[in-house]
Amino acid sequence: MKKLFNKRRSLFLTQNSKYLRYVFNDHFVLVLMFLSGFLLYQYSQLLKDFPKTHWPIIVIVSIIILMLLAMGGIASYLEPADKQFLLIKEEAIKEIINSAKKRTYIFWLVIQTLFLVLISPILIKLGLSVFMITLLIFGLGIIKWLVITYKVKVFYNNQNLNWDAAINHEQERKQSILKFFSLFTNVKGISTSVKRRSFLDGILKLISKTPSRLWTNLFVRAFLRSSDYLGLTIRLVTLNILSVIFVNETYLALALAFVFNYLLLFQLLALGHHFDYQYMNQLYPVRLNAKASQLKGFLRVLSYAVTVIDSILIRELKPVILLIVLMLIVTEYYIPYKIKKMID
């Protein structure tokens, strides 16, 4: 059993490692380097001119610590078919889950401890001694173990393995990882859910039901009814707006807004393949290039709508002009290039 699950873990990690090279491409690494340098500089400035009012710092640090305590999914690597084929090996599966619990705890304990060490200068400025910080690290380590233990309890029902709960948890964990990678490249294995949102039907009525607007109708319908596209858009636009509102450094806020906009447009390129499973769309009496041109048009409208929102929130002329220029380059040159390469 251990050999089987070690093989599954190895295959999943190998798959993820292939996607990492798309995440840490040259452009993203360059942006990450500049962003890291800026954050380190701001951190040093914060320590030099530490605010006299401590409560905002305490609130922010507390929220981050609580988020770290809540993070950490149990990587059991169970698959739906295991409920039938491995049912007689339930005791062995329990041992696998227990080992996964320990791995998860060790990994997140290291992350949690590194964060506390990183912010230890802030904690000292807040009045904590080195001894108190050490106690805090150990105390939070114990709490983390209790949180992980509580999460594992969902896998059991009166000491028996709850196969459905354990398998669903693993599927959700894998999907969350794959959806992160899908922000940067096309990823296989992502499951999607479709739901009609009748309150958004008014948007569909604005688009004429004519052959010349066929693909626009399909793309907008998929965008509004697929949880992946709409949910991702809401999350990225929300992060975009929050970064513009709450990041005091204008150009850093602009950089974050641009990154979120780029990720949004890149992810929505997947709409071009959304209907590939339906071979009947090849019989539609429309121009061959209609699919590509109407996908460009849809993404163009979305891109400019978000850019207008950013421009209103930023309010400074030079950063707004820079953002508009960057979005024009992405929208009018990069996105059409990717669409042509993808659809052709």
From TrEMBL:
InterPro entries: EcsB_ABC (IPR010288). It comes from the Bacteria. The chain crosses the membrane at residues 20-43, 55-78, 105-124, 130-148, 229-247, 253-276, 297-314, 320-337. Keywords: Membrane, Transmembrane, Transmembrane helix. Coiled coil: none annotated. GO terms for cellular component: membrane. This is ABC transporter permease. It comes from Streptococcus agalactiae.
